[in-house]
Design brief:
mainly beta; four-stranded antiparallel sheet; disordered N terminus
Length: 353
């Protein structure tokens, strides 16, 4: 574990970061007067900041696809890599469960952090799982995960979807869904649970999105978005992102975004102010929606989109996180991690070419 102690030269960054204290109360500080962040991530290559998470104690966790995992605990940055027990330095999802344990999905599998050490978790594959000779499918990639309201953990992997009840893994048979969804060449990439406990699954199979109510899987295809006359549009798929404070469920894909109110789908595309490729959607504490896309960041107040890009070296955004104090953190492709001060982006990834 590489530990980066923040000295006086990093004092500005310490003051900006808002993290929980030992009593789990968010620290309140004034961020408006600070204009710079030190370079904490140091990369020999372009750095992809892939997934972020803030745990119950207020620690911020930053996953990268090059440099492993970073944790800030209020005193120092800790960097975790394969040298500390991770099975890969390519991080694609992070989750804190109800017991406070940290699950990390990587390019080659699953790891569990108990606060001291990482354990590699082997997900047993079903014997009847179709084999695929494509090398891309031999890595056991973990894309996404969640802990459902019933406490069970769901893992979305390149080998399929798996449910963990605390004792054993069960393969979720998506191949029994309508239209033969999820063959050996298809894969779910995103998972989300709504307020009613429905599990939503999305992939890039051009088969729409899927909802699991605990008994049945329903395939939903918003035809007004997916159809172009008699032919399906090129991106006939969706990543479930979130359920907003009004109960609407949002999805994204390479054609824009769409909102589902329980009855109808409403599409948001370039004509509404969004680019084609939407990668991430979150809702902040004020009820604004933030859209990460291939050309920067947008904030939606329910009526109009406001576009932000000043300060971004690379405009492609992979991740957005609002911390406990309402600050926005952005992860990009190739140019690392940014702090958004409300007007512009401040980067603190230093490249060592």
């Amino acid at each position: 574990m590489k530990k980066i102690i923040l000295q006086m030269s990093l004092f500005t960054f310490l003051t900006i970061l808002l993290l929980g204290t030992a009593c789990n109360s968010p620290v309140k500080k004034d961020f408006a007067k600070y204009k710079e962040l030190p370079t904490v991530f140091k990369s020999k290559e372009n750095c992809n900041a892939s997934r972020f998470m803030q745990d119950k104690s207020g620690n911020l966790w930053f996953g990268t696809t090059d440099n492993g995992l970073y944790k800030y605990d209020g005193k120092s940055f800790n960097q975790f890599t394969i040298n500390d027990g991770l099975d890969s330095n390519k991080i694609y999802c992070i989750l804190e469960d109800k017991d406070g344990k940290i699950w990390v999905g990587t390019e080659v599998g699953l790891c569990l952090y108990n606060g001291k050490t990482f354990s590699k978790i082997q997900i047993p594959l079903p014997k009847n799982l179709p084999t695929n000779k494509n090398p891309y499918y031999q890595t056991h990639w973990v894309y996404n995960m969640l802990q459902a309201k019933d406490g069970k953990l769901w893992f979305v992997t390149i080998d399929g979807v798996f449910i963990y009840d605390g004792k054993s893994f069960t393969h979720f048979p998506m191949n029994e869904a309508p239209n033969g969804f999820l063959t050996s060449n298809d894969r779910v990439e995103r998972i989300f649970e709504d307020n009613k406990g429905n599990i939503w699954l999305g992939s890039r199979t051009n088969e729409g999105v899927f909802r699991y109510d605990g008994k049945f899987v329903t395939n939903l295809k918003p035809m007004d978005l997916f159809q172009d006359g008699p032919k399906p549009k090129a991106h006939n798929w969706g990543w479930p992102q979130l359920q907003d404070s009004n109960g609407n469920i949002w999805f994204s894909n390479w054609g824009g975004a769409y909102q589902y109110d329980g009855d109808t789908f409403t599409s948001f595309t370039t004509k509404d102010g969004l680019p084609s490729e939407v990668t991430r959607i979150i809702e902040d504490k004020k009820g604004n929606l933030w859209f990460g896309a291939s050309d920067g960041l947008r904030r939606y107040d329910g009526k109009t989109f406001t576009y932000f890009k000043d300060g971004l070296i690379n405009l492609w955004i992979w991740e957005i996180l609002e911390d406990n104090n309402g600050n926005i953190w952005v992860g990009t492709r190739e140019s690392g991690l940014y702090f958004f001060n409300g007007k512009t982006f401040i980067n603190y990834t230093e490249y060592k070419h």
